Amino acid sequence: MEEIRKKTLKPLAGMTLYELRQVTESLGLPKFAATQLAQWIYGKRVTTFEQMLNISKVGRERLAEQYCVGLYPPKSHVKSDDGTVKYLFDAGNEQAVEAVYIPDDDRATLCISSQKGCRMNCYFCMTGRQGFHGNLTANQIINQVLSVPCSEQLTNVVFMGMGEPLDNLEPVLKVIEILTSDWGLAWSPKRITVSTVGVKPALKTLCERTSVHIAVSVHNAVPEERQSLMPIEKLYPIKGVMELLGRYDFAHQRRLSVEYIMWNWFNDDIRHAEVLRELLPDEHVRVNLIRYHPLPEVAKLRTSSDERMAYFRDYLNGRGVTCTIRRSRGEDVQAACGMLAGKVK
Ligand code: SF4
Fold first, then answer.
1. In whole angstroms, how large is the CA radius of gyration of the chain?
2. How far apart are CA 134 and CA 175, in angstroms?
3. How confident is the model at residue 305 (pLDDT cuts 50, 70, 90)?
4. How many angstroms separate the Cα of 149 from the Cα of each of 19, 72, 159, 161?
5. Is 334 in the pocket of ligand 1 (CB under 6 A)?
6. What's the pLDDT at 344?
7. Coil vs helix vs strand at 344
């Protein structure tokens, strides 16, 4: 009986200040109690109402009748030789999602998931191969940030884990509000990057309602070739996505980057570099070249050689495009780009 009651409790973590106020008002708690809740949950990351000492005992009892704090630790983790740690979080219905902690000098980045699986069906991606099993709630997304052991040391969050964040827009916007509000974690939006394959209407909303950095997965700028890898090209061609992004200012407040996984003799010659250059809306866009992590069960594509990647990079650099080869992290524990599958072996 107690188990059933616990399962019906609504989590407070993941609520905005406005929503917390609605909760406290409905329970007859004083107005300032919502701010106190936000401070305990987002500031101090406490996991029980008993720890919230400045909220009256009666208030805590009323909260506990209908709500829980909603912060829970990862089920398991595995550490890579390079210091990257992959955490597995319970996502209900026997599903799990992954968050990847990537320490790098003075930066500590957490790559978080927004969906269980993904419906974008990109050919090269392990998550896409799993199919779609549902959206994560704002609680399940913010919990990844607040409940990893190194939570208070995080400097950056990237929505680049399992799922397409712009296919689950409202919870993602809510989490960005929690991360950037004074009553939440009070982060600068410059510490947050949302990565997308280019879900155009949701991307427009994201650009208008936030000023986070944006990373667009292009991977091949030739439309018919891109479509063979990424079905989204048919619905929202990358050319139209880039034209949309060209209307926003990426020179000052925020950054636009293009993600480009490199496959041997598939998208790594000068013709592809030139089509990619023409696609970029202006000179402020950065191009990140990414080494492909082969998964035998996923695709027969092979990664480009170091020489071909360097040549591609130098070609773009020579024409005024900032282009770098991104260092690969966590490959030995399948935590690298395109390898997340909701499993820790
Ligand atoms: S690459 Fe991203 S959008 Fe494409 S299937 Fe994988 S998780 Fe989904």
1. 21
2. 17
3. very high
4. 27, 11, 19, 18
5. no
6. 43
7. coil
Nearest CA, atom 7, ligand 1: 163
Confirm or reject CATH 1.10.150.530 for domain 2-68, answering yes or no.
yes
For the domain made up of 76-333, the CATH class stated in words is: alpha beta
Mean pLDDT, the chain, as a whole number? 92
Residue located via tokens 């930066």: 107
Cβ(169)–Cβ(194) under 8 Å? no
Q: Residue 324 in 3-state DSSP?
A: strand
Query: What pTM was estimated for this model as a whole?
Result: 0.94
Annotated catalytic, 152? no
- What tens digit of pLDDT does each residue of 36-94 get? 999 999 999 999 999 999 999 999 999 999 999 999 999 999 999 999 999 999 998 88
Query: Do residues 36 and 54 touch, judged by C-beta distance below 8 A?
Result: yes
Task: Give me ligand 1 centre to Cα 337, in Å.
Answer: 10
Q: Is the CB of 197 under 6 A from ligand 1?
A: yes
Q: How far is the CA of 141 from the centre of ligand 1 (A)?
A: 17
Phi-psi region of 108 (alpha: psi -120 to 50; beta: other; left: phi over 0): beta
Average pLDDT over every residue of 18-23: 98
Catalytic option among 3, 68, 98, 111: 98
Q: How far, rounded to the nearest angstrom, does the alpha carbon of residue 34 sit from its chain's CA centroid?
A: 27
The string of pLDDT tens digits covering residues 134-188 is 999 999 999 999 999 999 999 999 999 999 999 999 999 999 999 999 999 999 9
Q: Is 337 a catalytic residue?
A: yes
Identify which of 116, 118, 135, 263 to mutate to test ligand 1's pocket (most ligand atoms within 8 A of the CB): 118
| Tokens matching residue 261 | 């996984």
CA-closest residue to ligand 1 atom 4: 122
Q: Where are the chain's structural domains? A: 2-68, 76-333
